[in-house]
Amino acid sequence: MSAVDRLVLLGRAGLDTITALGRSGLFLVNVMFGRASFGNGWALLVKQLHSVGVLSLAIIVVSGLFIGMVLALQGYNILVGYGSEQAVGQMVALTLLRELGPVVTALLFAGRAGSALTAEIGLMKATEQLSSMEMIGVDPLKYVIAPRLWAGFISMPLLAMVFCVVGIWGGAMVAVDWLGVYSGSYWTNMQNSVQFVDDVLNGLIKAVVFAFVVTWIAVFQGYDCEPTSEGISRATTRTVVYASLAVLGLDFILTALMF
Amino acid sequence: MIRKGPNSTMTDVSDYIVDLQGVTFRRGQRVIFDGVDIRIPRGKVTGIMGPSGCGKTTLLRLIGAQLRPESGSIWVNGRNIPELGREQLFAARQDMGMLFQSGALFTDLSVFENVAFPLRVHTELPEDMIRDIVLLKLQAVGLRGARDLMPDELSGGMKRRVALARAIALDPQLMMYDEPFVGQDPISMGVLVRLIRLLNDALGLSSIVVSHDLAETASIADYLYVVGDGQVLGQGTPDELMNSDNPRIRQFMQGEPDGPVPFHFPARDYLQDLIQAEKDA
């Protein structure tokens, strides 16, 4: 392959990437600001909130519990060397609220709900359900995509909060009930050091941003996929890979800006 | 009613429900249609025939504006479809019904809810009236008894009939059938052939049947177009086309394996190919 050929390939890859970004941007604008939804919009949203949010609860709760427990265990082992094991509560809470809550929830959400959204929409496209909806005179962006997008936006930050709460409780189980840290210092140190705006709100902002990015990537990959079984499998993989990388990259940027 | 649009001559709308004028469409480098003119008469069943991959389904998607032509105009009921905005387009589509090859039923809805879907989103009819209309439509396709089943419990032929009931739920003026006979056993094939003709005449529809099943399409169509190589190769009543002098049309209508449309995909000389294989071995 000559140098010119390589240059051509590079140029084409660049153009493809920019075109895809443009397409996904237009797609998002159409979904969010298109004409008003149908009368049963609420029913559709509630159904999606259930499948995207409620059904993700189990994995979020179990993961949150174990991560909180591991944090407390590791934190205790290190802090006890300095005689400051009372600080384990604030360490668990700050780590969860600032970083692990939003990030791990977003990664789990991309794997559990994001991949399901992509596969579902992709399969609807492959079986011509989206086309037939268009021919019935119903805009699939409004009827299929918008409820899923909003369900993701709404449920992921809530899931992140559940994750943090369960993690803190799991930390207390290990530190207080098992390792014998005084429960008063576990909770009081936490109360004293956790700031609402700095820690809780910033963590929540992270979760909202991640929810937006993960759900957008998931529904766009489904809608834009090649309507074959191979195309759907590639789109599902892309959802998880792109969403995870975007979450981790954005987390660094947001952390640098916030703290 | 007389209308005039860009690149179009004056046409009496009442004669033709769809009027394609100089439509060009390409997919990448490949030209699918090259300045094609097709007119679909109102109230009739029109067959669009041609070999696989000649763009028959593309034609339906152009009429339904799921694809946009590179040039040319597509008049449906006096509206130039490629020029419509998103909202006008969705309104225009309510006059069209389309039966997809796969049926394309919504897999999360029951048979009843699939047929009720267009009524629920486009009308504000009370529930008991929706129920009556759905049962009427399902009765027309003979599946009233299957209303509580889910799509994955139906056979391929039944799926297509439910999809047909859904497509006619809003009483469209134009019905488009995309390869309705593919993969059907003789019984459901016969049922579909009868239904298409019956619905067209009883409901006063205009129908476009895209197919490569010669006998079935010729048996119900009032008028036929044969397309291929991006052109309209011929048109006329089924009898006219059967007796055509054009060798390409004759090859297609008689089902001859070789002729102007070659049996062999372009390849280098057969003997050379075999000798080369021996050399390589």
TrEMBL record, chain A:
GO cellular component: ATP-binding cassette (ABC) transporter complex
Its membrane topology: Multi-pass membrane protein
Compartment(s): Cell inner membrane
UniProt keyword list: Cell inner membrane, Cell membrane, Membrane, Transmembrane, Transmembrane helix, Transport
TM annotation in the entry: 25-45, 52-76, 158-180, 200-219, 240-258
Example of a GO MF term: phospholipid transporter activity
Self-association and partners: The complex is composed of two ATP-binding proteins (MlaF), two transmembrane proteins (MlaE), two cytoplasmic solute-binding proteins (MlaB) and six periplasmic solute-binding proteins (MlaD).
Role: Part of the ABC transporter complex MlaFEDB, which is involved in a phospholipid transport pathway that maintains lipid asymmetry in the outer membrane by retrograde trafficking of phospholipids from the outer membrane to the inner membrane. Probably responsible for the translocation of the substrate across the membrane.
PANTHER family in alphabetical order: ABC TRANSPORTER PERMEASE PROTEIN-RELATED, PROTEIN TRIGALACTOSYLDIACYLGLYCEROL 1, CHLOROPLASTIC
Protein family membership: Belongs to the MlaE permease family.
NCBIfam families in alphabetical order: MlaE family lipid ABC transporter permease subunit (TIGR00056), perm_MlaE_1 (NF033619)
Protein name as catalogued: Intermembrane phospholipid transport system permease protein MlaE
Organism: Halopseudomonas aestusnigri
UniProtKB/TrEMBL annotation, chain B:
Residue ranges of domain ABC transporter in the record: 18-254
The entry's keywords: ATP-binding, Nucleotide-binding, Transport
SMART domains linked to this entry: AAA
GO molecular function, one term: ATP binding
Family annotation (InterPro entries): AAA+_ATPase, ABC_transporter-like_ATP-bd, ABC_transporter-like_CS, P-loop_NTPase
GO BP terms in the entry: lipid transport
Top-level taxon in the UniProt lineage: Bacteria
Biological role stated in the UniProt entry: Part of the ABC transporter complex MlaFEDB, which is involved in a phospholipid transport pathway that maintains lipid asymmetry in the outer membrane by retrograde trafficking of phospholipids from the outer membrane to the inner membrane. Responsible for energy coupling to the transport system.
Family as reported in the entry's similarity comment: Belongs to the ABC transporter superfamily. MlaF family.
Subunit structure, as described in the record: The complex is composed of two ATP-binding proteins (MlaF), two transmembrane proteins (MlaE), two cytoplasmic solute-binding proteins (MlaB) and six periplasmic solute-binding proteins (MlaD).
Record-given protein name: Intermembrane phospholipid transport system ATP-binding protein MlaF
Organism (species): Halopseudomonas aestusnigri
